Amino acid sequence: MSAVTDDILPLEGQLQRTIDWRGAFWVASGVPALVLFSIGGIAGTTGTLAVYIWIVSMLMGFLQSFTYAEIAGLFPNKSGGASIYGATAWLPYSKLIAPLSVWCNWFAWSQVLSLGCSIAAAYILNAVAPIPLFTPTSPEVVGWIGAHAGTSPTDAVAAVTAAATPALRSWTLFSHTLGPVSFSLNAVFFIGAVLMLLTFAIQHRGILGTANVQKYIGLLVIIPMLIVGLVPILTGQINWANFSPLTPLAVAYAPEPGTWSIGGWTLVLGGMFIAAWSTYGFETAVCYTSEFKNPGTDTFKAIFYSGLLCLVLYILVPFTFQGVLGLNGMLATPIVDGSGVADAMASMVGGGQMVHGLLVMLMILALMLCIMTAMAGSSRTLYQGSVDGWLPRYLSHVNQHGAPTRAMWTDLVFNLVVLAIAASDATSFFFILAVSNCGYIIFNFLNLNAGWIHRIDNGHIKRPWRAPTWLLGIGTIFAFVNVVFMGAGAKTWNPLALWAGLITAALIVPVFCFRHYVQDKGRFPDHMLDDLGMSQGALATRKAGMLPYLTLAAGVVVLLVANWVFVI
Question: 493-548, pLDDT tens digit by residue?
């Protein structure tokens, strides 16, 4: 047995205990910037209901976080976040469910890198090569009409705009269509790739260096986001009529109000589905448990205060965004595709061109902050998954700064491929986002149910912080509610998004089988269960009986029924 054990424990270094909860808070402070990813898309699919979508989703995420805070406290020596801690609860019931949780959390979080870089690159492109604005009375348009008799003012504006648009905006080295998406090696891709490499360089210094950098960037981002949220309220720019009627759109991306029919509910559930990807994200604050100086107290504080920050900004920013722009403004193409969100927010504050440029730059910093947050969290998920025997061994390497560099390189290469898709067009961007969120909802379902499984199977383990039982119950209910969001709402972003998400989730099976049955000869590392005081033999004990299996079956039924009932 010792020979087998020695064979599966060759870890190359370890993460270092160098931060407290404040460090994790600053690393997670990039999460509020995720609102920039889908604020336009959610407005385009839910209309005047958008702000209510954000409020409900954020409140759900905050209540769910208490379950994550409890189970994270059980594992003071693990990193990687809630998926790692929750996966252990499922291990006695199925070897495949545990790595599924880790994998789904990783591919959901990892794609923040590519999606964030594509948006930040679009903001930069708008600054260096803006699309000129013309009106029917512009001299260029008048001259065009004079030279092309019979041309309408609308067609003339379009023609003059196309002629004056910088060639950089349409340049591409290579582009192609692949199934439901396109990919392009265009200007957005190359700018985004540079931003991604910059993020990698910062992360290479380890978690302490990352936290120190993000503390200052975080202050430069959180304060402007508060300004953008508060100034329109204080200056009286909010039009309260923009928050009604309380009905869904008849058709996505069109201003006509619809009814609370099956189609209307499907659009609303689609909004709840995609909002969850952003509003639940502050759970990344517990990714760094093994790097906390005092994990017993730092774990709860990190996720709680990160949640409070997100609660404020995820409600405030969408509220002012909708209150100022109104339905027609939110349905404008640059808002829906995300490229004009920073410009729109900056214009709400006023203050002239200098202030506008400054705020746009700060929105780019906000995206850089959430990109760094994503790389820090997702790379540690890969690292701990490797250490615990679920993912390939090579991911367990860390450098002299305690940074999991091989996991970071894996993130980088994967996201360069995804970036080429996200940079192509809005349809491809939201397809990637929807597939990513399918993984996130699967992880969410497994981990919220892991809370009560840990209570049954590991109730004897001391918990530094114990969630009230009623909050644990609410988290369990929300697990199924989120499955409804996925089954009903994923199709609003792409007809194939749900099935593509499920196929992507299933890719963990051959990866895990290679690690577990080929590399580790069918055994998990003994240290994986050290935090619970368990041995390999304890995996045969299933105190929860059939309940976990019935929960999985119920989740599948809810998913299929929701997908069948709710159609556009």
Answer: 999 999 999 999 999 999 999 998 998 888 877 776 665 555 555 566 788 889 99
Answer yes or no: is pLDDT of 4 > 60: no
pLDDT in tens, 427-479: 899 999 999 999 999 999 999 999 999 999 888 888 888 889 999 999 999 99
Give the residue carrying structure tokens 């409140």.
59
Specify whether the CB–CB gap between 115 and 433 falls below 8 A: yes
Instruction: Give me the sign of the Cα torsion angle 308, 311, 314, 315.
Output: negative
- How remote is the C-alpha of 510 from its chain's centroid? 25
Strand partners, 182: 177
CA distance 62 to 45: 24
Q: Are strands 181-186 and 172-178 parallel, antiparallel or unpaired?
A: antiparallel
Confidence bin at 273 (pLDDT 50/70/90): very high
Tell me the C-alpha to C-alpha distance, in Å, between residue 52 and each of 7, 270, 446, 484: 53, 13, 26, 18
Q: In Å, what is the CA distance from 348 to each residue of 309, 310, 344, 433? A: 22, 21, 7, 27
**Distances in Å between the alpha carbon of 172 and those of 169, 325, 420, 482?**
9, 33, 11, 39
Q: What span, in angstroms and rounded, lies between the C-alpha atoms of 441 and 76?
A: 25
Is the predicted pLDDT of residue 349 greater than 90, yes or no? no
Q: At what angle do helices 35-46 and 341-349 cross, to 10 degrees?
A: 90
Q: 506: which residues sit within 8 A by CB, 6+ positions away?
A: none
Q: Rounded to whole angstroms, how far apart are CA atoms 28 and 38?
A: 19
Q: Which helix (H) or strand (E) holds 184?
A: strand 181-186
The reply to whether the predicted model has a pTM over 0.85 is yes
Name the band, by pLDDT with cuts 50, 70 and 90, for residue 9: very low
The number of C-alpha atoms within 13 Å of 406 and in the hemisphere containing its C-beta is 18
> Which DSSP letter does residue 531 get?
G
What is the DSSP track for 52-70? HHHHHHHHHHHHHHHHHHH
Residue 106 · residue 437 · CB < 8 Å: no
561-566-568 Cα angle (round to 5)? 150
Q: In one letter, which amino acid is 168?
A: L
What is the rounded CA–CA span in Å between residue 179 and residue 317? Answer: 35
- Secondary structure class of 499 (helix, strand, coil): helix
Which of 235, 257, 236 minimizes the C-alpha distance to 247? 257
Q: What is the pLDDT of residue 398?
A: 78
Mean pLDDT of the chain: 84
Helix (H), strand (E) at residue 554: helix 547-565
Nearest to 422 by CA among 129, 100, 136, 118: 118
What is the 8-class DSSP label of residue 526? G
Which alpha helices (H) appear in 423-528, and where do they start and end?
426-457, 469-489, 497-506, 508-513
- Angle at CA of residue 52, ends 51 and 58, nearest 5°: 95
pLDDT in tens, 85-127: 788 889 889 888 888 988 998 888 888 889 989 988 988 998 8
Query: Are 42 and 50 contacting, i.e. CB atoms less than 8 angstroms apart?
Result: yes
